[in-house]
Specification:
The chain has helices spanning about 20-35, 55-70, 85-95, 115-125, 135-140, 145-155, 170-175, 190-195, 210-225, 225-245, 250-260, 275-285, and strands at about 5-10, 40, 75, 100-105, 130-135, 160-165, 185, 200-205. The protein is an alpha/beta fold. The protein has one domain (about 5-285): Aldolase class I (TIM Barrel), CATH 3.20.20.70. An eight-stranded parallel barrel has the order 1-2-3-4-5-6-7-8, surrounded by six helices. The relative contact order is 0.14.
Amino acid sequence: MKIGRLITAMITPFNDQGDVDYIKSRKLASALIESGSDGLLVGGTTGESPSMSDDEKLRLFSEIKSEVGDNVSVIAGTTDNNHKKSLELSLEAEKIGVDALLLTVPSYNKPTQEGLYRHFKSIAEAVSIPGILYNVPSRTSLNMDLGTTLRLAEIDNIIGIKEASSDQFQITQIIDSSPDDFLVWSGNDDETFQVMSVGGYGIVSVASNIIGLQIKDMITLILSGKFSDAAMQHRKLLPLFKALFWVTNPIPVKYALNISGFPVGGVRLPLYEPDTDFVNKFDNIISDFEIDIKYPS
């Protein structure tokens, strides 16, 4: 399956008891496809993966893949800083039938670049499905550098990277120096226009949980060479892109879904609900935007 250009980093709905709401998760997955998503990243940071058990993740992977079928790619977040557990979870996710794995740079234990290479190489060689690297120094305090990324790009089933370093020079070098079939997705909504304008493939998006059609429109304009119109769309969406990261993701986007009429519950501790000051400022921003996602009737 070809992995699409607009991948939504899907939030995980919880019920009033704080348990994963699998029925609501399936409804959200279908609604996201209706609002422009080409694929879904399940069990990533936006999905609160650090607060979920492996059993919850595996069931969620299965439920979402069953819901969207074979026409939409499901990318499973299966890796953390425990190599053995990452390998085991990746193998279990492959058995379930996910289409690809998200291979996230580990946090906290801060491996060397050689350690990163061997960690990802080992997982990629153990499975037959594609892997997408994820570089996010703001979360991990570690940048996967250009040389390591290019080494990993030579592995057959490592097909691309979600680049959230915000280092436009590094990102451009990856695009310029990697194999032609190695894909670069922006890891930040507010950088999609810049990354795609220099040859990036797409975006793994938080904002597409609520405004997927509008992001898809910007992508289409870029691909059509209508850069002035795409830049205008980027400028229009930029205030919301920024507001969704005023406090730790996914607190704002879950709040946005809830107030837009798509109830997804709260966040799990140690994350906590937004305070009154955030709500007042955020409500003022989001009132200027039309929300694309619709709760199924």
